[in-house]
Amino acid sequence: MKSVFIAVRVSLLFMIVCGLIYPLVTTGVAGVLFPKQANGSLIESGGVVIGSELLAQNFESPKLFHPRASAAKYDPTASSGSNTAVASSDYAAAMAESIDALKQENPNLTDIPADLVTVSGSGFDPDLSPEGAKAQVPRISKETGISEKSLNDLVDQLSKARQLGVFGEPRVNVTELNMELLKQVKL
User: Fold this and answer.
1) Taking the CA atoms of the chain, what radius of gyration do you get in angstroms?
2) CB half-sphere exposure, 70, CA atoms < 13 A
3) Looking at residues 87-110, what average pLDDT do you find?
4) How far apart are CA 187 and CA 144, in angstroms?
5) Mean pLDDT value across residues 61-65
6) What is the pTM of this model?
7) What distance in Å separates the CA atoms of residue 126 and residue 65, rounded to the nearest whole number?
8) Sign (positive or negative) of CA dihedral 123, 125, 131, 132
9) Cα torsion for 48, 53, 59, 63, to the nearest 10°?
10) 57, 74 contact by CB (below 8 A)
11) Are 165 and 33 a contacting pair, CB within 8 Å?
């Protein structure tokens, strides 16, 4: 019976330490050392939260860069990728439809980056490849009157390299890109 009381006391001690103290301390430390990330990497404009660097948003205006397609319809509470197998006829039909829609919106597009027609694994990936963003430049230039060179320079300026030089792929955050673009153009 004595060993049962010891086991209960040790269990309670570990529940308090691991379930209460440790999470509170790590949350506090994260909030002090990384306040932006600890609060969801929110993007503000004029003191108003307009989104997060971590979640894609749907931009439909032809004057703005468009993100990857979202299987969750850009709803962060409904994260989901596609369960469609690459070898299925449904997937091939969906890709053909995505390619047709992309070509209709961007008629001069000849080389199609995969991230413009495929859905991200989470359903709301906020980043595009620099090539995916640059593929949209002719459309945006035509719609806004901003030169293609200026738009390509903007994409280059906001592009991020591989993490630590090896992890991931070069990328550009579509929301940040559009925020900078909105400073130059009125919708």
Assistant:
1) 22
2) 21
3) 85
4) 9
5) 92
6) 0.77
7) 12
8) positive
9) 90
10) yes
11) no
76, 126 Cβ separation under 8 angstroms: no
CB-based contacts of 79-87 (< 8 A; 24+ apart in sequence): 79/122, 79/123, 79/124, 80/123, 81/119, 81/120, 81/121, 81/122, 81/123, 82/119
CA distance 187 to 163: 34
Which tokens in the block code for residue 157? 């300026």
- Considering all CA atoms of the chain, what is the largest pairwise distance in Å, rounded to the nearest integer? 82
Residue type for position 147: S
Q: How far is CA 184 from the centre of its chain?
A: 23
Strand pairing category for 127-128 and 48-52: unpaired
Over the stretch 158-173, which tens digit does the pLDDT of each residue have?
999 999 989 999 999 9
Query: How many angstroms from the chain centroid is the CA of residue 47?
Result: 22
